[in-house]
Each structure stands twice: as C-alpha cells, then as structure tokens.
Amino acid sequence: MAQLSDRVKALVQPHLRTLEPYDPNFTPTRVNLSANENTYDVPAPARALVDEALAATPTNRYPDPMSNDLRDELAAWHGVARENVIAGNGGDELLYNFLLAFGGPGRTLVNVPPTFSEYAFFASLTQTGVHDVWRDPETFLPQADELVAAAGEASLVILTSPNNPTGDVVALELVARVCDACPGLVMVDEAYGEFAEPATSAEALLAEHDNLLVLHTLSKAFALAGARCGYVIAAPDVIDALAAVRQIYSVNVLTQAAALAAVRARAEFDPTVEKIVSERSRLYESLARVEGVRVWPSEGNFILARMAGASRVRERLRDERSILVRDFSYAPGLADCLRITVGTPEENDAVIEALSEIVPEEAARAVAAGNEPACATNKEDQDD
Fold first, then answer.
1. Of 250-264, 265-279, 370-384, which gets the smallest average pLDDT?
2. β-strand partners of 324
3. Which residues contact 304 (CB under 8 A, 6 or more apart)?
4. Are 118 and 95 in contact (CB under 8 A)?
5. Does residue 1 surpass a pLDDT of 90?
6. 195 by DSSP, 3-state: which?
7. How many Cβ atoms from other residues are within 10 Å of residue 173's Cβ?
8. Three-state SS string across 104-171, please?
9. pLDDT at position 375 over 60
10. Residue 20: per-residue pLDDT
11. How far apart are CA 262 and CA 36, in angstroms?
C-alpha cells in the first residue's frame, strides 16, 4: 500500500500516522498453508444445513444487533447463560472491543510474545501501553513468575492457548495465578482450542474468576473463516461493556444464519478436527526427521519450524513447488522460523517432500558460499 500523503498525515491522529492497512498480498498457489485456515470444507451434512439457512434468510432487514439466537445456542453448548456470551465479526472485532472498552491512555496490556501480532496492534489503535513479557526462547513457554508479576501491575492481560505461532497451551494453574494477580481483566484467546485437549480450556476457571474472558472463533475448527464470526464468554457485566462499544449490526444476517446452523451441527465437525490432529502429529514427526529442521510440539492446527535461511526456503516453496507457508523470520524471537498450517494428507505430503529436498540443498549452498548454517536441532519440550 502507498504511504500516506503529507496532507493526510496532517489530518490523521498522530498515533495512527505510521499504521498501514492489513493486506498480506498472498500469491496464488496450489497449496496454501499460510493462514491457519481449515483446509477442509464444511462437512457435507453441516453444509447442507448452512445452505438451507442462508437460502431462508432475508437480507432486506437489519440483523438482530445482539445475535440472540446464536448467543442462545452458544450458551447452551458451553453451559452458561445468554448474558455470558457476546458474538462478534470474527475474533478480531472482539479483541479490538476488549482494548477499546478496557484499555486506553494510562492503561497497560501485558502481552506475551512471540504471539498474535494483532494484540499489540489493537493496543496501539486504542493508545494502550504494552508491557511485553517474552517467552522462553528455547521452549516458547511463558515465563510464569515474570508474567504473574507483570499482571499485578497491569490493566489487561491477553494469553493465547494454543499460542499462535508457537502452538503451546497455557497451564490452567498459570491462568488462575494471572487472574488472581491482575487488578483488571484477563482474556484467554482459544481460537485454536478445538485442536487441543478439552481439559486445557480456561472455561473451567470462569466460575471462580469474574475477571476472566475466553475468546472463541468459528474460523478454524468450523471452517467459517470467510463468514467472520467469533464469540466471548465472560461475566455478564463484562459482556455488557463489550456490547456497548461494538459497531451496531457488526454480525450480518448471513453470518448469523450460517454460524447458528454450523453450531447446531457441531458434532459433524468432530471427524475433521480428529483428522487435523492426526495429521499434525504426522507432519511434526516427519519434519523432525529432516536434517536441519527444528520443530516445536503444537496443540493448534499448525507447526512452527526453524531452519537456516527460512526466508529463502519459503520463497523456493512458493516459486518451485507452489506451496505457500508463513515466514516469521522478521518477527523478534522467531529468527529463521516458518509456520506451516496442517493441511490435508496430500498437502502435508507435498510440504514434507519439498522441505526434505530444499532444506539440505540450502544448507549445502550456504556451506559452499562459506557461510556455515546454524544447526537446527529437535529438542522437545520436557513439559507434556
């Protein structure tokens, strides 16, 4: 995107002048494993119900601004009341509303990088200060004591479980400690939660901690990334505040209809989730055997892998094999790291074959050029 003109810079709020529109400008490829989307379509029985619901939905009237039918279904599923649930235009809207309602000048968000970059971005939009508590550089696990200490001085904390892009889950004991320490609010982003063990969900702590929010999305396990629908479960007074700052009619009638049909048919998605979890294990084990590749255990629908010259490897995957993965080499703490979405068996086979050939070639090329590549070793986390 073009830089802002001097004229517009003078008109834009000072803290927004350096921001740029989000446009990843993905190159079309035959295998796209770059955005952590569900590479499977909505299962046929659920798709039939979604299509039927869409066909029956009039578009000449405004949507229910609170998405109450959807809230009721989500509440019944999660064993809470309607008043404990709010739906939004994807998890991103709810993250922004969280910072909009409870952040702002003079308030601080505790962030735990490397993690989802939108947390810091939304903090910048709302002029919320950010205190980064960096993860352990070897295991990528949160540094618990430092995190709890920072939470004690913070207005807000966001924890991601499983974390994007590292794949680890936050221990519930640590979530509880952070909630106890924080005088403000703690959000646990469980966008990838369906791919992890159910016992890892922070929802188990909601009854004991009225400052806890749990964020979910239908983009991943439910294969509805294009529909844009997420939801938060929290105490009713917290939900009321999020509802007060949201854009009106942010969840359109078609999204509400599709989401409601999908959630009612949620059992139809279980086999797909099981396939992805199984393929995640196979992809992890296969990449761990590739010389020069280090991988980290993941509870999400993706794998983080480190290799020498990762940016060039990513380019070769794209240009020579028509495979797109996400390059995180630019991100602090993630030097030479690629994030690879778990795809179908055929897509994963293509990635395994390509990396098995390209990574050794790039290592040999570096040696020939007199640049000894850094050795990537597979040291698994000791914590299960």
1. 370-384
2. 32
3. 140, 165, 166, 167, 295, 296, 298, 328, 334, 337, 338, 339, 340
4. yes
5. no
6. helix
7. 10
8. CCCCEEEECCCCCCHHHHHHHHCCCEEEECCCCCCCCCCCHHHHHHHHCCCCEEEEECCCCCCCCCCC
9. no
10. 82
11. 19
Q: Model confidence over 199-244: pLDDT tens digits?
A: 999 999 999 999 999 999 999 999 999 999 999 999 999 999 999 9
Sign of CA dihedral 354, 355, 361, 366: positive
Strand partners, 109: 130, 156
Task: Name the CATH superfamily housing domain 29-39+270-368.
Answer: Aspartate Aminotransferase, domain 1 (3.90.1150.10)
For the chain, the structural domain boundaries read 29-39+270-368, 44-267
Q: What is the pLDDT of residue 381?
A: 31
Residue 379 has pLDDT above 80, yes or no: no
44-267: what fold? Answer: Aspartate Aminotransferase; domain 2 (3.40.640)
What b/e string do you get for 75-103 counting C-beta neighbours within 10 Å, with b at 16 or more? beebebebebbbbbbbbbbbbbbbbbbbb
Which of the 8 DSSP states describes residue 34?
Answer: S
Question: What's the pLDDT at 365?
Answer: 86
Q: Residue 176 carries which side chain, given as an amino acid letter?
A: A
Distance of CA 2 to the CA centre of its chain: 28
Calculate what percentage of the chain has a pLDDT beyond 70.
96
Continuous segment of H or E residues that includes residue 193 = none
The answer to whether domain 29-39+270-368 and domain 44-267 are alike in fold is no
Q: Decide if 380 contacts 372 (C-beta within 8 A).
A: no
Does residue 140 surpass a pLDDT of 90?
yes
Q: What is the mean pLDDT of residues 162-175?
A: 98
Tokens at 195, concatenated: 């791919």
Other beta carbons within 10 Å of 199: 8
Which pLDDT score, from 0 to 100, does residue 23 have? 78
| Dihedral sign from CA coordinates of 45, 47, 51, 57 | positive
